[in-house]
Design goal:
2 strands, Multidrug-efflux Transporter Regulator, Chain: A, Domain 2, two-stranded antiparallel ribbon, mainly alpha, 235 residues
């Protein structure tokens, strides 16, 4: 990755440098990492971001740890904090010590299709739920098995969240509106990425999937912020 000394870079220039090693990175991804506090570019009086060579190194480190070691942002932040203190970052896990499927499903998603597949009994055990509850969740379309009868990491997350909400008295029938809202968000994201997914270029299709994941993350963050704002307005 070539750089221009200590010259401050625009976000577009940063994207150009990073794409040499990380072809799927996008401007929205860089902005997301900034929002998560992993990089703090300077701002011009008019509000434009200006990135230093140190900022570029930090972004490359984050993307490399995600791509090569599947580390969640929380752990990567700990690494960066240690490096800033002049300490050696925590040792990276050896390939044989990577998390098992249940832990994998519960960690931050950093790549699509993590390969997590759970059987019905495994899902019930991980979600601390009973068969009757799972049957009810499936009847309301909140969760569904794949063609092979197994469940992926997203299904496990949904199951755990639905079970936790149930402890507050929220039943599956109450969550139909949440599911309908999620389906509308999926349709909105699909409008953006559908033309890219139909492209013949494999890199363009890969970019479509990366964009869809980033839009999903932003959508979830927006939803959470609006819910919090709505609750504050009622106090």
């Amino acid at each position: 990755m070539r750089r221009r000394g200590d010259e401050l870079l625009s976000i577009g220039a940063v994207l150009t440098f990073l794409r040499d090693d990380f072809p799927e990175v996008t401007i929205s991804k860089i902005r997301f990492l900034e929002a998560e506090g992993l990089v703090e570019p300077q701002r011009t009086p008019s509000g434009y971001r200006k990135f230093s060579s140190a900022d570029l190194d930090r972004l490359a480190y984050v993307l490399r740890m995600q791509r090569d070691h599947y580390l969640p942002l929380r752990v990567i932040r700990e690494h960066l904090d240690a490096i800033e203190r002049g300490e050696a970052p925590p040792a990276l896990p050896a390939p044989d010590n990577r998390p098992g499927p249940l832990e994998e499903a519960d960690r931050e998603l950093v790549a699509p299709g993590g390969g997590v597949r759970l059987g019905r009994s495994e899902l019930l055990a991980a979600a601390e739920a009973g068969e009757a509850e799972l049957v009810e969740w499936e009847s309301y379309g909140l969760i569904s098995a794949g063609p092979d009868g197994g469940y992926d990491g997203e299904a496990l997350q949904v199951a755990r969240l639905v079970a936790e909400l149930g402890r507050f008295g929220l039943e599956p029938r109450h969550l139909r509106a949440v599911k309908a809202g999620a389906e509308r968000e999926v349709a909105l994201i699909d409008q953006v990425v559908a033309p890219l997914r139909r492209h013949r270029n494999p890199q363009t299709r890969a970019h479509a999937e990366a964009t869809a994941r980033e839009l999903a993350t932003l959508s979830v963050r927006l939803h959470a912020a609006m819910v919090q704002a709505g609750l504050r307005s009622r106090t």
